[in-house]
């Protein structure tokens, strides 16, 4: 009797154990599915949220419309078949107005130039400081044939193909930025490297070629060095740069140390252009 009384209990204990196991297993499956789903989910929402938030920092833009113009460049396309022209509608929607005497171009000086323009915002603008470049600075995106989603991982880059989604964007945006140049234009180049005017850079292959001599009066190269300069304004690559400029555009070059720049940008009283 005791045994009989015990067995059903033991049975129900085992049953409870099985039910618990099944429930735990189901919960585990659901958790894994949710985690995987989140990880593998296309990132349209994340990229769009960042884009819109950054766009809203600029006045006078319909940010949803700008996103729409941007997105149509690559959504549903092979990410290696997005040429720069695909972003023409985005460029048109951004409608970046010429900014005389304030445009700042750069090559291999990313940190120092942005540190500088951030403090001297009223004086100089890099493309990343404008709505054109700011909305996607530092981000990666691409589409896929037959999909309406935006992906932010496993997107091809320059190593994979010429007409890649992200590279074409920066080429197109840089061209638009150079088209807006007028008056006195500045370019911050790196004096700590052997060839400050690198013929394969965006500055050399796109921007310099688009400076319009009917609008651009002069180009001033600010050649920045940290401590021991590798090169200076006499470097032959800068002669190549002068040859690239259309007739009528005056060329200047100034050797400047990073310390001089920092000292100048931390002093808000200093007028624009007085840092070199
Ligand atoms: C990239 O796109 C352009 C169109 O802008 C086209 O002429 C060119 O052939 C493409 N290049 C490659 C390698 O697909
Ligand atoms: C510039 O660099 C060259 C060597 O590349 C050197 O001979 C020259 O003295 C330097 N000029 C200045 C002003 O530092
Ligand atoms: C200066 O420019 C030339 C030609 O672009 C380059 O080959 C050379 O190594 C550069 N640098 C120095 C420090 O001379």
Low-confidence stretches: 1-11
Name the helicity range. Answer: 40-55%
Work out the count of structural domains.
Answer: 1
Number of strands: 5
Largest sheet: 5 strands, parallel
Along the chain, the helix and strand elements come as: HHHHEEHHHEHEHEH
The CATH H-level homologous superfamily = ADP Ribosyl Cyclase, Chain A, domain 1
**Proportion of residues in extended strands:** 5-15%
CATH fold-type name: ADP Ribosyl Cyclase, Chain A, domain 1
Oligomer: single chain
C-alpha-based Rg, rounded? 28 Å
Shape: elongated
CATH C-level label: Mainly Alpha
GO molecular function: NAD+ nucleosidase activity, cyclic ADP-ribose generating; phosphorus-oxygen lyase activity; transferase activity
Transmembrane segments: 17-40
Family: Belongs to the ADP-ribosyl cyclase family.
GO biological process, one term: positive regulation of B cell proliferation
Q: What is the strand and helix layout of this fold?
A:
Elements: H1 2-40, H2 44-55, H3 63-71, H4 88-94, E1 99-100, E2 104-107, H5 110-119, H6 131-134, H7 165-179, E3 181-190, H8 202-210, E4 216-225, H9 236-244, E5 250-257, H10 258-265
Parallel strand pairs: 1-3, 2-3, 3-4, 4-5
Bound molecules: 2-acetamido-2-deoxy-beta-D-glucopyranose (NAG) (3 copies).
Characterization of this structure:
- Its EC number is 3.2.2.6.
- It is an enzyme of class 3 (hydrolase).
- Keywords: Disulfide bond, Hydrolase, Membrane, NAD, Transferase, Transmembrane, Transmembrane helix.
- The protein is of the alpha/beta class.
- The chain has a single domain, classed as Up-down Bundle (ADP Ribosyl Cyclase, Chain A, domain 1).
- Helices cover 44% and strands 12% of the residues.
- It has ten helices and five strands.
- Strands 1, 2, 3, 4 and 5 form a five-stranded parallel beta sheet that branches.
- Strand 4, helix 9 (236-244) and strand 5 (250-257) form a beta-alpha-beta unit.
- Helix 2 packs across helix 3 and helix 5 (110-119) packs parallel to helix 10 (258-265).
- The longest helix is centred in the N-terminal third of the chain and has 39 residues, at 2-40.
- The termini are far apart.
- The model is unreliable at 1-11 (pLDDT under 50).
- Bound molecules: 2-acetamido-2-deoxy-beta-D-glucopyranose (3 copies).
């Amino acid at each position: 009797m005791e045994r009989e009384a015990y067995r059903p209990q033991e049975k129900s204990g085992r049953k409870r154990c099985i039910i618990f196991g099944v429930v735990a297993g189901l919960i585990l499956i659901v958790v894994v599915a949710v985690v995987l789903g989140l990880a593998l989910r296309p990132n349209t929402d994340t990229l769009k949220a960042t884009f819109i938030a950054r766009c809203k920092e600029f006045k006078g833009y319909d940010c949803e419309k700008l996103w729409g113009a941007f997105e149509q460049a690559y959504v549903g396309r092979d990410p290696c078949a997005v040429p720069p022209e695909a972003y023409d509608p985005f460029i048109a929607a951004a409608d970046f107005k010429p900014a005389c005497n304030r445009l700042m171009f750069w090559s291999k000086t990313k940190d120092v130039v942005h540190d500088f323009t951030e403090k001297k915002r009223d004086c100089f603008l890099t493309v990343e400081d404008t709505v054109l470049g700011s909305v996607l600075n530092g981000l990666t995106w691409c589409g896929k044939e037959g999909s309406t989603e935006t992906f932010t991982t496993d997107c091809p880059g320059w190593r994979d193909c010429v007409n890649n989604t992200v590279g074409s964007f920066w080429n197109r945006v840089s061209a638009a930025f150079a088209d807006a140049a007028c008056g006195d234009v500045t370019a911050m180049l790196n004096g700590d490297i052997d060839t400050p005017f690198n013929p394969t850079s965006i500055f050399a292959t796109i921007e310099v070629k688009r400076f319009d001599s009917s609008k651009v009066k002069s180009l001033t190269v600010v050649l920045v060095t940290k401590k021991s300069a590798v090169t200076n304004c006499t470097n032959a690559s800068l002669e190549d740069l002068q040859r690239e400029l259309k007739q009528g555009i005056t060329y200047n070059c100034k050797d400047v140390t990073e310390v001089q720049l920092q000292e100048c940008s931390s002093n808000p009283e200093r007028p624009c252009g007085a840092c070199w």
